[in-house]
User: Fold Glutathione S-transferase from Moraxella lacunata.
Amino acid sequence: MLTLHHLNDSRSFRILWLLCELNALYGTPFRVIKHERTKSYLAPKELTNIHPMGKAPILIDESCDKTLAESGFIIEYLLRHYDTQAKLSPSDEAWEDYAFWLHFTESSLMPNLVMRLVFAKIVQKSPFFIRPIVKNIQKGVEKSFISPNVDKALALLNEHLANRRYLSGAGQGVFGAVDIHLHFGIAQMRKSGGLPDKWVYVHNWLAYCESRPSFEMAQSYE
Assistant:
């Protein structure tokens, strides 16, 4: 049995969705233990009792008594041990696209989105008499650094998806774990109003990914 310690509104959704895919494809059993963020939007302290990092996702593979952390690593682990027919894993021909977009997610995209979130939280928590100053600093960083980098990332992604449905695979692409991996960050941008309509192919890709029954199943756990 696979047990996922899931935190709402976090990268943990990647693993939840992948588990739903594996369940649909192979009947892989799993259970979900839900955790809620604190009022400070942090992970609850009880996660530290499960893994020293104290962050979600945390996956426990009871078949071999392993406790795993880090969403990217957990995805690789699940593909290696549970995607027995390689339906969500890249073929040899698709590996370069798969590997690039896997690393793009955590190297080029997510650090900028996290920085944007942190600055927003700093502004919210600032005393009212210095909030205008902090807000101006936030706007400066957003304009000079965050927005240009996010726009470059989205432009590259939009171009890649112009003639395909999914990130890797022959022809129009084949849905795989890398789509799940990247989806979270892009969907969060859309949720916050930060994904303009001009990125047409990115929006189309989101729609293709979210049309899968496994996505709806994963959302039911949120």
Observations:
- The longest strand covers residues 2-7.
- The domain at 92-212 is CATH 1.20.1050.10 (Glutathione S-transferase Yfyf (Class Pi); Chain A, domain 2).
